[in-house]
Amino acid sequence: MRDLIVKINTDAVVGGVTTANQQLTTNRNNSSRLNADDPAVSSRALSLTVGPLRQDDADSTDDGSDSGTAGTPTSQSAGYWPDLEVLDPDHPILERFQANLTHLLDEEDQQLTLKILEAEEKRKCILREKKKTLAGLDEMKRLNERSRVTLRKEKEALEVEKAKRLQVECDLLPEKKQRFELLQRDLRDAQSADNLLEKELEIGRKKIAAIRQRLEEQQQQLAQARGRLDQGHRERDSNQACKLLQDVVINQLLADVEAAEWKRNQMENTLLDEEQLTAGLRDAIRGAHAEIAAINTEKIRLNQSWQSSLLALQKNNEALAAVHQSIRNEEARREEINRCWAIGEKETTELASKRTNIQFELGRLERKITNLETQWQSREAQKSSDDERNRRLESIIRSREEELQTLIREAELLAKSESDALDRLQAQRCKNKTLEAAILDQVYRSVACDQEAQAIYRHIRQMEDNSTALDFEIAKAESRNGKALLERDNLEKELQEKRKELEEKEAQVALKDGQIKQLEMELGEQQKLLERKEMHWVRQKTMLDELLATLEENQARTEEERVLRVLQEQLDQIRQATDSFQRQWSETEQQLLQVAMTRDLQAVEEGKLRDEISVREEKKKRLLREVAGLKHTQLQCKRSIHGWREYLQQLDARLAQQTANKESLERHNQHFQRQWQIHLEEPERKVHRVREEIVQLRSQKSNLEINLCDLNKVMVLWTGKLADIREAQSYYQAERSDAGSLALLQAEKHRLQVQEVQLRKDQELLNHQLQKAVLGRSGLNTKADIKTGVAHKTRIVKEPVDSNAWYKILSKEITKRRKELVKLKQSISERKTVNAELTAQRDSLRDSLEMDRNRLEQLDHNIAEAVVTKRRGISTLVNHQKWWRFYDQLKYGTYRKKHGADALAEAESRARKKLIQLLKVTDRLACEYPHLEAQLNDIRDSLN
């Protein structure tokens, strides 16, 4: 019979309500165990199971024993035995329940697999996008580096062109200054000559006006003489007596007229000569004006060139100011770089501390991992104990199978159910074997994962040790670089101080040279003044000689008293002028004596200054030797700096290699972390599967408890049978008292006694087996409590007296087990919460580790950029220092002394050629205009 439905009537204590409640509680416990992790599944399972159970209960109550019953007729007069239905494990309700449950689990498994596939696809998409973004970032970095290189090259080319232009302008600037000064001097000399010519022209004009006045007076005298002659003719006509007198007067007048005409002709000749002289002077003045116009044009051109040179100088000054500003900016940038470097060093120290903290956190995580591994091992041990428990349960099942076989031998109605139970047990054994094989595979895989994880952690530790060693080497190299930079800065400061001292001394020497040149110029000016005064005195002397000659000529002519008076007045003026010239000559002689005395004093001072100059030149040579030594030391420093830079470049290359290795290791680390995460998730899945298997085993345990209840019911059934037999015995003893049936009754009594003894033996055997089962179950429960950590108590079960006592003991045990199950559920929920917290902490620690690693990468990138910017700033600072030296040399004239010797020689040769050309021009003008010889001599002297 497939469906075992037992209807019994027994005591009220062992009622059907309690069994039904037990069955419902067992079903609920099974459903709660199966679906404790998923409330949706539990709700759906309950909705799927409660309805069919109610329907099947209703069908069973309506139909009665449709599929067969096993039992004996009970007395309806007792009335205290309710109808009880016990469902077989192979009941269609349970089969439907298992089918629905498996269907739900399959659906959930499919949903989970779909979600896992979607998550993997999303992860692959994210990885592809990450690769694309990384490729784009690399491309942007390459473009940025190319643009930086091109900008640097363009900047260097512009700086070189700017330097060349400045050098050319600085080379041409002294030539332009000299040309401008020479042209200014020529212009001044031409203006002075023009003024002298204008003064002489004024004097000639005055002389011509005086001569013209004389000619007019003579013409008036001639007109008066002619009037007199006409009057004489008229008087001669009127007075013939006075004819002779008139003839004499006429002859005298004619002689006077002839003399006046001769004088007039002479004056006209002198006037013509003066006009020719004035025409020559006018031509000379025109030529001088043309030369002045040419000089003015040259002056304008030179002014324009001077203005352009001034603009160029202003531009150069602006460029110098810009260079100074750029140098200040570079100094500020250098300070900023140093500050950033200090900040970077602080950050490196902070990173070192963070690395130590991270290493500590890694150690702590490793300890946690070891703890988790120990927990995993404990769980494995628990799983092994569960396997042992399963084996024991199997042994119990075997013993129960034997008991069932004995019961089936006694009761034919239970044969088919026994065969079905055996088939089911064999299937369960196969399932258990497959589960054991799967668990062993999982154990082997977990051991392999643990070995791989240990190898990965060893590799990570080795790489961290290598990274710390590299960081230590980098710190050493940076400290060496800092010391070299400090030494170079000290040497540069000393060089600057020496240069400042040398420039101060050169400025003092230049000041002394300027004073000497100024004194020489004053002496030259005084000599020129003396020469000019001598020339003027010679000129006045020649004029005096001419006037004396004219005076002698005029003395021979006594008839012209008025002219003599004029000449005497002129002579008086000339004498006064000669007296004044003599006084000036005496004054100039005194001045010459003073100048000679001052010249002697200046010669003495010049000797002293020459001695000082020689001393200064020796000091200068000594300073130059010191500067050469400093330059040699500077070259050595530059070589050492170059060596250090090469060493730093090597270190940078090594650092780049190490960073590349670090990045590759971090990529491997991330890959291994992903694998490790997958491996960690795999044991969690295994744990979930093991939990499901434990739930299944618990369901099997509940089935075994149901079987125990069935055995108890069978025992109660046999006790009821014994009670019926006793009632029948009393009935037969009361009803049949005849002697004929007494023997039959005795035989029946003997048979019943034998059957009672056999039943008692069977009851004792069943009690003994039940006691063994209870003790085995208590031992298993204690072991489970020890493994799960739940407090347990020693259970002492006394030998029951009857079935009611056993029922009470079992009910107490069931209540205790229920309480323990509640406690176990609470502990499981607490463990789940703790596990969730631990997983959250693990995820947070992983996130923090990733953030720290990203921060480390960012800081390494910032350090590399700071090193690059520092090198760039150092190179730009060196270039600006070179430009600063170059402009300082230009400013103080040392560059021209050092590098402009050829240009100065060429400029001097050009100036000498121009002076020779000007001297030739002055000689030609002196030949053409001898009356301008004095001025031309002054010009020649000024040119010399």
In the predicted model, the low-confidence regions spanning at least 5 consecutive residues are 1-87, 790-803
Q: What is the count of β-strands? A: 0
* Element-by-element helix/strand order: HHHHHHHHHHH
Summed over residues and divided by their number, the pLDDT gives a mean of 65
User: Over all CA atoms, what is the radius of gyration?
Assistant: 70 Å
Give the structural class. Answer: mainly alpha
Query: What percentage of residues falls in helices of 4 or more residues?
Result: over 70%
So what's the overall shape?
A: rod-shaped
Can you tag this structure with a few keywords?
single chain; mainly alpha; 11 helices; 91% helix; rod-shaped; coiled coil; CCDC40; Coiled-coil domain-containing protein 40
General description of the model:
The protein has helices at residues 16-34, 39-63, 92-238, 243-410, 415-556, 561-735, 740-788, 803-892, 894-899, 901-928, 933-943. The longest helix is centred in the last third of the chain and has 175 residues, at 561-735. By secondary structure, it is mostly helical. The termini are far apart. Residues 201-277, 355-428, 460-584, 648-707, 835-862 form a coiled coil. This is Coiled-coil domain-containing protein 40. Keywords: Coiled coil.
